[in-house]
Amino acid sequence: MLSDIEIAQSTKLLPIAKIAENLGIQEEELEFYGKYKAKLNDSIFKRLAGKPDGKLVLVTAINPTPAGEGKTTTTAGLGQAMAKIGKKAVIALREPSLGPVFGIKGGAAGGGYAQVLPMEDINLHFTGDMHAITSANNLCCAMLDNHMQQGNALGIDPRRILIKRCLDMNDRALRNVVIGLGGKVNGVPREDGFIITVASEVMAILCLSADSKDLKRRLGNILIAYTYSGEPVYARDIKADGAMTALLKDAINPNLVQTIEGTPAVMHGGPFANIAHGCNSIRATRLALKLGDYCITEAGFGSDLGAEKFLDIKCRMAGLSPSCIVVVATVRALKYNGGVPKTDLAQENVEALKKGTANLRAHVENMKQYGVPVVVAINRFHTDTEAELQVIDSCCRELGVDYALSEVFAKGGEGGMELAQTICDVIDRTSDTCHFAPIYPDNAAVEEKIETIAKRIYGADGVNYSNQALKSLKEIKALGGDELPVCVAKTQYSLSDDPTLLGRPSGFSITIRDLRLSNGAGFVVAYAGDIMTMPGLPKVPSAEKIDVDEENVIHGLF
Prior knowledge:
Layout: H1 4-9, H2 16-23, E1 30-32, E2 38-40, H3 42-47, E3 55-61, H4 71-84, E4 89-93, H5 98-102, E5 110-111, E6 114-117, H6 119-123, H7 129-149, E7 156-161, E8 165-167, E9 177-179, E10 190-192, E11 194-196, H8 201-208, H9 212-220, E12 223-227, E13 232-234, H10 241-247, E14 255-259, E15 264-267, H11 282-291, E16 294-298, H12 303-318, E17 324-329, H13 331-337, H14 350-368, E18 374-379, H15 386-399, E19 402-406, H16 408-411, H17 417-429, H18 446-458, E20 462-465, H19 467-478, E21 486-489, E22 509-518, E23 523-528, E24 547-548, E25 554-555
Parallel strand pairs: 3-16, 3-17, 4-15, 4-16, 8-11, 17-18, 18-19, 20-22, 21-23
Antiparallel strand pairs: 1-2, 2-14, 5-6, 6-14, 7-12, 9-10, 12-13, 14-15, 22-23, 24-25
């Protein structure tokens, strides 16, 4: 059996100019990064501004497990399958972070015969967007420290610095550091730390900005510190916003690539859904909606994280309305939620599967709250038995949702045709009854928004706040943050904030240990449980298996 990278390397790619031509993209709207990658510049947005949008399909999933769900694979395969049934679809995805690529999770370009290519480029440096975001964030940090070194005219309190440096790599040793050591010439000593690039506010801003003007405004609005007198300091106050925008002038343009079957894919931005808002850029999604009759996009991790933020943050800010939500699950992952160890998931276990479907039920019922039709996609494995698939059938019937088996990993677009047709049929059938709405209003207090998410999405009994969270909440309200949506950072492995509580836990409360105003991005981050913004590498990182041979061919990249 071929590995993902072997399948990718054996595929004959179309020149990206041909992919663009098939979409009606003009040559002057392309900025080429080699033969198979290109950026799409502002001129295409202006030309397509008046064109009607296609249908927006969001792909989400149950809570992730070690068994894997294949959400990105399903998204890529679904785009290929749409072409197989005669539909014009464009995929909109996030860019991978180097942290998971060299860590444990892997990349974000799909797998098997449902991949976005060129996968080596995409999973490594791609078009340099991640590095530009890292540089812009760290420039702001450098200018902040330099301001304090050069007289500190604003009176910035070094004990109240809010922005942290970032790095697109899992490196636990950088979570807490001390900078400015070595005497007066080397700066003001203070405690600092690094977060992973995809968790930075600059990443969120790139993904939520409408254009370069909006980008600069948002960058200037980043709350970076407080003064000794307690006044807020923004990035614009140290005159960092202009140079940060200059570093991001190319990164703000979406990237055009293709699937293994030549389906167009727009990849842009890459925030994690457990510690950020987990969606690709608004610009990429809007562009995909203009270029295709269907835009197939995905949001990170389970629906309690990425999908909730897509629907309550991204759609709210961008004025987007999905026509269908696809919840991806596997028999194996549901058995894991039912208590089966990872080593025994290939064995039939109907009772454990029945128990584990509680997790699927929760995610489907949660998504229904948004007034959008839901379709379940079962990513099929060869070990799935007929008795187990019958359990899935009964579960979906009880939930009142359509479902389809998906075999895109093994068969590419052909293996997703049933799913594609089911989605199209559901969209057509519900076009008059689909009325999307976020689950909380803009004018609700921050505590009300958090409580709504905790109770209606996670199934919690209530919310507890630490003293630090209450202090932060008071400061956020004083700065007008009450009108902003909430981005909850929590574990992806459970509907709760405890990663060990699988299935559909009950009788628990969510603990908010701190809150942070992401003023430029336009939301409030609520940190639940022990979630960290700088992951660490596992005992055996994926990086150990990656190598380059004498012919300069990469091996071991999945």
